[in-house]
Amino acid sequence: MNVDLDLWKLLAGLGIFLFGMFLLEDSVKALSGKAFRRIIRLYTNGRFKAIGSGALVTAILQSSSAVSLMVLAFVGAGVMSIENAIGVIMGSNIGTTFTAWIVATLGFKIKIEAFALPFIGIGGIGLIFFRNSSRFSYASRLLVGFGFLFLGLDYMKGSVESLAQNLDLSRVPDYGLWVYLLVGILFTAIMQASAASIAIVLTALHSQLITFEIGAVMVIGANVGTTITVLLGAIGGMPAKKRVSFSHLIFNVVTAVVAFFGLPILVWCVKVFFDINTNSVMGLALFHTLFNVLGVIIFLPFMGLLSQVLFKLYPDHKAVLTMYIDRTPTEVPDAAVAAIRKEIMHLLEECQLYNLRLLRIDDKLVFDHELHFEKSMKKPSLDHLYENLKLLHGEIFSFYSRLQNQKLEETEAKELERIIYASRNMVNSVKNFKSIRHNMDEFDGSDNPYLNTQYKLFRKRLVELYHIMGRIRQMKSREEQYRRLLTTFAQIEEADRQFIQETMNAVSTGQVQEMEISTLLLVNRLFTQACRLQIFSLKDILLSLEQISDFDREMDRRETKNGEESKTD
C-alpha cells in the first residue's frame, strides 16, 4: 500500500493557515477591539445576553481563546460576575463553530486560488501604500489574513490527496474512537488553535482519509483541547480567574462526554439535514454546532449551581495588604493619624521594592528585612506587586476619607492632607517606573555599550538614592532630615544635568543613534521625576508643616533661579 504524504506541504499549509488566523484575529481586534470589549463588559447582564454576546464576539474575532482571556481579565477586575462569565464562555463555544462553517462553505466549494490570491494581492499592496495609516493598514492585514486562511487550507488539502487516493481505510487498524478523541485533544492543546485542528479534520474528511465518525470525534477532542489556553492564563492568578478557567474546562469536558456517548444520535440528526456521504464537510460543521448548542442547553439550568460550586472550590482569600490602619479605629483621630503615617511609610517601602525588582536589583542591597507583601505572597511577580500597590493606596485613601468625617483639629487636618500627598506621589513614582520598564529592558539587552552603561548607572543611582532615604528615615533630628532632603534633591538635579550633558557628548561622538536619543532623554526624565516624587513623599511624611513650607519655598526659589539662568544662556 503506497501512502505518499507530502509532509512539508502539509506543514506549510498548516503554518500559512495559522498565520492567516493570527492576522485575522490581530487586525479585527485592532480595528474594533474596544467595541468587542465593550460588548463583553456591558452586554452580558443575564444568561441569554451573556451567551449571545460570547457567540457573536467569538464568531467575529474567530478566537474563543481571545474571548475567554478577555473574560478572565474582566472577572479579575471585578466588573463581571462568575455566572455571566460562564455564559460568555458557553456562547464562545457556539461562536467558534463559525470557523468550521466558513471553511466548509467556501473552502471546499470553490477554486481556492481564485478566491484567496486576490485577497492576498490587494491586502499586500494595501500594506505598502497604507503603512502610515493604522486603520487602512489593519484592514489590509485583514484581507491578507483571510487569503492566507484559505491558501493554507488549499495546501493542506493538496498534501493529502495522493495519500487519500492510495489509502485503503479497511486496512487501517481499528484503534477505537477514543484514540481519535485523544488525538484531537492533544493536537489542539499543542497548537493552541482549535480552528486549525478542525480545518485539518475537514480536509482529511473531504479527501476521504477518515470517516465521518472519526472526524466528529476529533472535533469533540478539539473542543476540549482549546481549554488549555484559558487554564494557562489562570495559572497563579486570583481565585476569580481560576473559577472562570475551571468552568470552561467543566463545560467543554461534560459537553464532550455527552457528545461522545451520544454520537450515534447526533450523527442521525446531522443526516436529517445533510447526506454525509456526499456532503460530509457541511455535515461535520453542523455536528460541531449541534453538540455545542446541546452543551449550552444542558448547562443553562445549572449555571447558578455551577458558580456556587466553583466559589466553594476556589474561595476568595483576600490578602491583608495593610499593616496598621486595618486595626486602628478612625474614632480616635490621634491614633488614626499616626497609623496612616506609618502605613504610608509601609507603602513607600513596597514602592521601592517594586522599583528595585523592575531594574532587577537585589532588594537585599537596600532592605535588611522581608517586606509585608513578600511574606503574604512569596516572591510576587511585578504585575502582582503593582496591583497590590494600587490596592494598598486605595485602602489608605479610603481610611483617609473615613478619618475626615471625624472632628479633627485644624493642625491635624493639615497634617493629614500633607501625608496623603505623600501616598499619591509614591504611586505616581511607581507609574513612572512602570512606563519605562520595557525601555530599561531594551537598554540592558542592547548591542550598544553606551546604552548598557546607562542602564547600570540608572540602577546605581536608584540604589544610592534608597540608601540615602533609609539614612534620612533613621535620623532623630527633623532639622537634620530637612537639610539632608534638600541636599538629596540637589543631587538628583545634578545627576539629571550630568546625564543630559553625557548624552549630548555621546551624540557628538556617534555613540548613540538618532532614534535612541529621544528614548534616553524620555527615560531619564521619567526616572528623575520619579526620584523627585519619592523625596517629596519623604518630606511630607517626616517634616513639620513649617519645614514643609520652607522646603517648598526653597524649591520654588531654585526653579526660578534655574529658569533665569536658562534665559541668560
Notes on the protein architecture:
- The chain has helices at residues 7-42, 47-61, 64-76, 82-95, 97-107, 112-129, 134-166, 177-191, 194-206, 212-225, 227-234, 239-261, 263-273, 280-299, 303-313, 333-358, 372-377, 382-404, 410-435, 437-445, 449-474, 478-508, 514-542, 545-568.
- The protein is mainly α and 569 residues long.
- The longest helix has 36 residues, at 7-42.
- The chain is elongated and about 90 Å long.
- The N and C termini lie far apart (89 Å).
- The relative contact order is 0.07.
- Mean pLDDT is 78; it is low at 164-172.
* Helix-strand pattern: HHHHHHHHHHHHHHHHHHHHHHHH
Shape: elongated
* Low-confidence spans: 164-172
Count of distinct strands: 0
- How is the biggest beta sheet arranged? none
* Average predicted local confidence, pLDDT: 78
Distance between the termini: 89 Å
Number of domains: 2
Strand content: under 5%
What's the helix and strand layout?
Layout: H1 7-42, H2 47-61, H3 64-76, H4 82-95, H5 97-107, H6 112-129, H7 134-166, H8 177-191, H9 194-206, H10 212-225, H11 227-234, H12 239-261, H13 263-273, H14 280-299, H15 303-313, H16 333-358, H17 372-377, H18 382-404, H19 410-435, H20 437-445, H21 449-474, H22 478-508, H23 514-542, H24 545-568
Helix pairs in contact: 1-2, 1-3, 1-7, 2-4, 3-4, 3-11, 3-12, 4-12, 4-14, 4-15, 5-9, 5-14, 6-7, 7-9, 8-10, 9-10, 10-12, 10-14, 11-12, 12-14, 12-15, 13-14, 16-18, 16-19, 16-23, 18-19, 19-23, 20-21, 21-22, 21-23, 22-23
